[in-house]
Each structure stands twice: as C-alpha cells, then as structure tokens.
Amino acid sequence: MVEDREGGSGVKSVSQAIRILNVVAQMDGPVSLKEIAARAGVAPSKAHRYLQSLCTCGFLSQATKSGAYDLGMETLRLGLAAINRVDIINRAGEALSSLTSETESDSFLTVWADNGPTMVRFERSKKPAMAMMGAGVSMPVLNSATGLVFLAFGNPDRVAEVVRRQENENYDAVMKQIAARIETVREAGYASSIGVIMTGRQCISAPIISYDDKVIAAVSLVSTKPDIVEPDSKEVKALLDFCKLYSIRKRGYSEETLIEKRIAI
C-alpha cells in the first residue's frame, strides 16, 4: 500500500489523485481497477472516479478491451520535461567553469526555490570579484539581476507567491514600481544590477529557458569591470551564447518568440 504523506494544509482530493497515479506508475504495466483500489487503500467506486478524471486529463489511459489502466501521454510529457530540466541544470553547471574562464568573471547558476532564486553552483574566477559562495544562498528577488530574470521569465504564480510573502501588503505597489524594468529585461533578454550583491560589483544574468519561454535556471556573471552591464559587452554576448546553448530548442514553430530572438535559439 502506498504511504499516505498528506499534510494538514494539502488539498485532500489532489493528494488522493496523486496517490492513485503513483500506484499506476509503480506497476510494470497496465493494472486493473481492483488492484489499484487495493494498493491505494480506497474503495473501488472511489478509485474509479479518480481514475476517470485522470484519464480525462490525459495522465492515465484505459485499455478498451481489458479496462486496465496505464500511464497517459501527459504523464510522459511531464516526466520528459523533468528529465530535461535536471539534465540541463547539471550540464550547464558542469560547463560553468568555461564561461568563468572566458569572461574572467565569477559565475553562478540559480534555480527558483521556496525563498526565490537559489544558488546551486558557483565558479570563482582567477581574479575573484566576491567571496566564495555555496549552494543554497538566495538572491534578492526584486533588485538583483538574477531575481529580475525570474520576475521577467519565471512562472508568474510561483514568483508572486514568494514576492507576496516577502512584501506582504506592499506587493501590488512594489510590482507596479518595477514593471517597466521587468519589461526592459524581457526585451533585452538579460538583466543587470550594480552594487546589489556587493558594493562596486556589477552583475548580469540571463535565463536558460524551456519550450514555453519560462526560465529553468538563471546564469549570472559578477565582475568589478563597470562595462560588463553594457549590451555590447563581450560578457553579455558570452552569457547569452551560453544560455542559448543550454536552453530547450523549439520545433515546428514558424516564428521565433522574443526571448528566442534575444538569445538566438
């Protein structure tokens, strides 16, 4: 029987549906309603309702003759997306040292977590601009180059959740103040900040993007050189080329999206 890990703040029906989906996922092939209900610890009639809903959404499929259930195309799509993202983050992280050498700048890779942009990899240059930083360090959401990348290209709901928690009642006012800056980041394809991480340090950041133009991870460069933030700087070009290399390329679209044009996918 699948362990019930539902928390007090969770939505019970969603937790139950995921529990049933996991039962099917753990099997070697198509499985009957009776076995699914037994393994999930629910009545067959209740399991049937959840199974039909999951089939309607495409997360499960049902064989016409046997009536057995198996994983659907939506589950496959999510699984492949997760694999792609993990693989991209790993490969980009391993290649970060080459970007550091090319730009002579400190570099780091961040992903979106519960506290906002969170560092998962840091590479220090031969002439470091900042102290060594480890995984788990969070970047400011609203004014750092890294945070602005996630504001511009991140999932709006996930971003809003963190910003609302940090800003409380001031959320709407704060977002209104930085709306123009976020749009500038979208148009440029990268963000910049001066003196946010450390006094006298310039930072530029760009997104590694998925099929939907949403950021998978952000790559950032930090330097004491003042011209690093300029659109025509060699550091900006190197950063955008790097992000182009590790972004997920689209297939079958007749027109490039805005961020594709900026990083030339």
Detailed description of the structure:
The chain is 47% helix and 16% strand. By secondary structure, it is α+β, with helices and mostly antiparallel strands. The protein has two domains: 60 residues, Winged helix-like DNA-binding domain superfamily/Winged helix DNA-binding domain (Arc Repressor Mutant, subunit A), CATH 1.10.10; 183 residues, GAF domain (Beta-Lactamase). Strands 4-3-7-6-5 form a five-stranded antiparallel sheet, sandwiched between helices. It starts with 11 loop residues before the first helix and ends with a helix.
Summarize the structure.
This protein has helices at residues 12-25, 33-40, 44-56, 73-103, 145-153, 156-167, 171-188, 234-246, 258-263; strands spanning 60-62, 69-71, 106-113, 116-123, 191-194, 202-209, 215-223. The chain is of the alpha+beta class and 265 residues long. It folds into two domains: 12-71, Winged helix-like DNA-binding domain superfamily/Winged helix DNA-binding domain (Arc Repressor Mutant, subunit A, Orthogonal Bundle), CATH 1.10.10.10; 81-263, GAF domain (Beta-Lactamase, 2-Layer Sandwich), CATH 3.30.450.
